[in-house]
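Run log // design_07
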């Protein structure tokens, strides 16, 4: 680590104590940027990086709501408006008990670079709450969403800040949030993405992150004249990203043998086919059940609880070619990364945000596997959100084929940017540097053009 990175990190840690995920995300990016700043002293003089690590605005608010027993519940709501140099703030809302300021700042920081890579005009933001939708009735979720939006609606708008879904925020939550925004502001606009199809949503938006992560993996394999045909894949999570990752892998001739949730994982040696995936969609999206039920239904599958006491996740300890972490941050540590490599995995495409710890990432880079970091590999979701914004502005929906073709094209172009940028900065094959530098340059130049704001 050079002295510039050391000094900046010391400042970031001192100013943002206890925000460990934010520190981790910043350190990974600025390590890549040192070489860029050496080549471009104008960025250093204008303190572009020092400005990038400081959100333009942080909103934090009380969210009171009534539960079904009439009791009062209080949660905390957040919106981080990180950077608007290249467009309105754009990024998801996460509802999960683990949500805090540091986690949302890491996600908002990553989002700035990711959105830039898509080539669409979107700045970066992220938000959410420590509210846990699990175990709540639909009415409780609705009352919470209405209270959350009653405050958030004062700060967002189709040309200002356009939130979307993330962990714990799917079609149901976006519907309740949109309804309340419309009611208070008296306007029907594209203020959220991930909307229902008959009220402004885009085809392919639910599929986009998962499909995109698989398209990115396919592009990485293409650099070695290979494809996903016949490849065995490990997928973690069983939510939105995991579900459509599996669908696309099956379509491209691969086989998926794992799935998980926060309690445990299933291993299905025969592979999760289209029929079994249908069961998972019904289990997770309609009944909101646990993945354990997969092994109750399909007897050949084995369910294993994941204990927090273990120093590794047994899910990553199965023979395979590819891994698609699609659950949450830091779900692959150094030991998991070593297990993956020992078991033959040589393609990792991150559907989740920052799912690999820094030691794990370094191991993947040292071993020169095909490693696609989240801000590149999972950018398909926000890309199609950007396409939803375009369709909303035109008030004209595109067909499924049109959106999927554009998504595919964007993922290919992100891949090309990563490869070419990594090469031109002297680290061929390093998608981490390619994504960080590629995403940075466009934002940094816009910030220079716009003066000291
Ligand atoms: P969902 O809420 O639909 O699904 C999340 C899945 O991950 C669930 O299976 C959940 O299990 C599991 N999970 C969540 N937290 C943990 C945890 N702490 N430990 C273990 N498992 C956990 O979310 P998404 O599929 O939308 O998001 C998954 C990842 O993809 C996140 O990192 C998100 O930031 C990222 N992402 C999502 C995008 C999108 O378009 N949705 C876009 C880009 C990135 P359980 O049901 O038990 O909670």
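design_07 sequence
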């Amino acid at each position: 680590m050079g002295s510039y990175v050391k000094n900046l990190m010391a400042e970031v840690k001192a100013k943002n104590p206890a925000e460990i995920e934010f520190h981790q995300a910043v350190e990974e990016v600025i390590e890549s940027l040192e070489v860029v700043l050496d080549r471009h002293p104008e960025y250093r003089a204008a303190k572009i990086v020092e400005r990038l690590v400081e959100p333009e605005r942080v909103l934090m608010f009380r969210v009171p709501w009534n539960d079904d027993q009439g009791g009062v519940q209080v949660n905390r709501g957040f919106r981080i408006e990180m950077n608007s140099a290249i467009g309105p703030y754009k990024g998801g809302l996460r509802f999960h008990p683990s949500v805090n300021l540091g986690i949302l700042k890491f996600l908002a920081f990553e989002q700035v670079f990711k959105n830039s890579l898509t080539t669409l005009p979107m700045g970066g933001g992220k938000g959410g709450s420590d509210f846990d939708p699990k175990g709540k009735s639909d009415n409780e979720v609705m009352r919470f969403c209405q209270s959350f939006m009653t405050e958030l609606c004062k700060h967002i708008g189709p040309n200002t800040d356009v939130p979307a879904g993330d962990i714990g925020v799917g079609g149901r939550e976006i519907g309740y949030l949109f309804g309340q925004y419309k009611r208070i502001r008296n306007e029907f606009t594209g203020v959220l993405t991930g909307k229902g199809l008959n009220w402004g949503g885009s085809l392919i938006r639910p599929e986009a992150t998962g499909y995109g992560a698989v398209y990115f993996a396919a592009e990485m394999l293409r650099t070695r004249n290979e494809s996903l045909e016949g490849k065995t894949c490990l997928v973690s999570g069983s939510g939105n990203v995991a579900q459509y990752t599996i669908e696309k892998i099956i379509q491209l001739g691969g086989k998926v043998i794992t799935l998980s949730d926060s309690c445990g994982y299933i291993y299905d040696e025969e592979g999760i086919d289209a029929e079994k995936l249908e069961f998972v969609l019904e289990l997770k999206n309609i009944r909101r059940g646990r993945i354990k039920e997969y092994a109750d239904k399909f007897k050949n599958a084995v369910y294993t609880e994941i204990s927090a006491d273990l120093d590794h996740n047994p899910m990553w300890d199965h023979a395979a070619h590819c891994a698609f972490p699609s659950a949450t941050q830091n779900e692959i540590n150094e030991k998991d990364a070593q297990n993956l490599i020992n078991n033959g995995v040589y393609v990792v495409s991150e559907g989740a945000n920052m799912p690999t710890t820094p030691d794990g990432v370094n191991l993947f880079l040292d071993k020169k596997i095909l490693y696609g970091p989240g801000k590149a590999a999972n950018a398909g979701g926000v890309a199609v959100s950007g396409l939803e914004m375009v369709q909303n502005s035109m008030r004209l929906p595109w067909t499924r084929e049109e959106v999927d073709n554009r998504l595919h094209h964007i993922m290919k172009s992100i891949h090309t940017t990563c490869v070419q940028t990594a090469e031109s900065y002297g680290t061929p094959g390093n998608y981490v540097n390619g994504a960080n530098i590629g995403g940075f340059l466009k934002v940094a130049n816009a910030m220079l053009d716009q003066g000291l704001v």
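The domain at 3-188 is CATH 3.40.50.10860 (Rossmann fold).
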